[in-house]
Amino acid sequence: PLTLEEVRMLVELFYLPYHHGTLAQELLEHFRWLRANSLSVGVPGTAPDACGGTRWRGRAQSFQLLCAQTCRLHSRFVSTASRALLYDLHPYLWDIRNLLLAASAFVLWLGCQSITAPILLGRDAEPWACRGGLFGELQALLPVGNSCDLFYHPPPLFPSSQLYVLRPLLPLDKVGAVAWRGCSEVALGQAGLQAQLSHALALAARLLGPFLSLSPEYTFVLEDESGPCGYAAGVLHAEGFLQQRDNSWLPAMRHKYPRDLGAGGPALGQEAVLFFHAEPLAVPPPVLRRFPSLVQLGTAPRVLDVGPSRSLALCLLSALRANGSRGVFCQVSDADRQQLSFYSKLG
Q1: How many other CB atoms are found less than 10 A from the CB of residue 133?
Q2: Mean pLDDT of 183-212
Q3: Gene3D superfamilies in the record, alphabetically (predicted)?
Q4: Is 274 within a domain?
Q5: Which is it for strands 328-329 and 293-299: parallel, antiparallel or unpaired?
Q6: Largest Cα–Cα distance of the chain, in whole Å?
Q7: Average pLDDT estimate for 9-20
Q8: pLDDT digits over 164-191, tens only?
Q9: Are the CB atoms for 24 and 13 separated by under 8 Å?
Q10: Confidence grade of residue 152 (pLDDT, cut at 50, 70, 90)
Q11: How many CB atoms lie within 10 A of CB 85?
Q12: Distance CA 60, CA 232 (A)
């Protein structure tokens, strides 16, 4: 059964309409302070502001721990609560869990950046656009908080106790290297592709290579107890990214994977190699003017709960919005029913 401490946490998250319990107040205070003081991060240890950076990281760690406790509470509640109680309260706890996954990863991402521009909130939303309570206040603190259509989604019919972790992908560390391989497997699995080891790297490079090579700072990874199970990759300025991809990245890939490399092999290997030698489709200029940023997301087939997928999207969009993006687009083949279905479920 739930412990007394876990019941107290549950009550404090949903205390009174205009008054939060201790846990909820701590979450809000930490998040407000971390967002407002994010410029103090990334300074060298000998710099005058080193104390500010140390303090920021200390509060970020406290916020991460509170978020992790809440995510564990959701998992425990699904596993132990009576069915009647579970179906009454789960939608609220599920909402908070998903929002804290995004907020926690966003704070981790802030700790890896040195943002020199203010975090933009855009136009104020109408009062009815944001929900009340802790969820509404946390939502308003995310840079995309006024985009109310991003935050509403019905909870799953069958609640899952699966624990998830969402964080930025750091390509240079060992954990990042493992996550990169896992994200590649996720991308292949979501596309319905199964490849031999000899062709897996070419397929992974085709799906995620440009993002990891040219815009690694906007990449996030979702993990469950079995390892990486989702990814989100983005580009702040898509026009320059696409030009750089076509002028430098693609020629390097063509040299690495010559046209005749896939000849005589499986069709999937041939397709992966030929992709690098095909002329990429141009994005219409009106699209780039209105939606200057590019995004790509995916989750493994085993992720049946749409909540963590939406957390991935919220985190990536918040990171792009924090640096001034005013709109995003994604590129999907009209024949790729799986990807079209995935993005449609995200709304």
Answers
A1: 19
A2: 66
A3: 3.40.630.30, STAT, domain 1 (1.20.58.240)
A4: no
A5: parallel
A6: 68
A7: 90
A8: 999 998 756 555 566 666 666 676 665 5
A9: yes
A10: confident
A11: 11
A12: 22
Which residues, in sequence order, are bridge partners of residue 295? 234
Among all chains, which residue has been given the structure tokens 């449609």?
A: 344
**Residue 315 included in any domain:** yes
Lowest mean pLDDT among 18-27, 65-74, 313-322, 330-339: 330-339
Please tell me the total count of domains within the chain.
Answer: 1
C-beta separation of 193 from 339 below 8 A: no
Within a domain: 32: yes
In a domain, 42, yes or no: yes
Digit-coded pLDDT (tens) for 275-312: 778 888 889 999 999 999 999 998 888 888 989 999 99
* Cβ(51)–Cβ(41) below 8 Å: no
* Residue numbers of the domain that contains 315: 4-169+216-237+292-346
Residue type, 302: R
Dist CA 95 CA 99 (whole Å): 6
Region of poorest pLDDT, from 8-12, 127-131, 156-160, 256-260: 127-131
- Report d(CA 161, CA 76) in Å as an integer: 7
How many other CB atoms are there within 10 angstroms of residue 147's CB atom?
Answer: 17
Candidates 278, 183, 191; CA nearest to 222 is 183
The Cα–Cα gap between 19 and 95 comes to 19
Grouping H, G, I as helix, E, B as strand and the rest as coil, residue 131 is coil
User: Which residue reads 């809440």 in tokens?
Assistant: 70
* d(C-alpha 132, C-alpha 137), whole Å: 7
Quickly count: other Cβ atoms within 10 Å of residue 279's Cβ: 7
Higher pLDDT among residues 228 and 320, named by residue: 320
Is the Cβ–Cβ distance between 184 and 196 less than 8 Å?
Answer: no
Tokens of 240: 């320059």
Instruction: Tell me phi and psi for residue 227, to 5 degrees.
Output: 120, -165
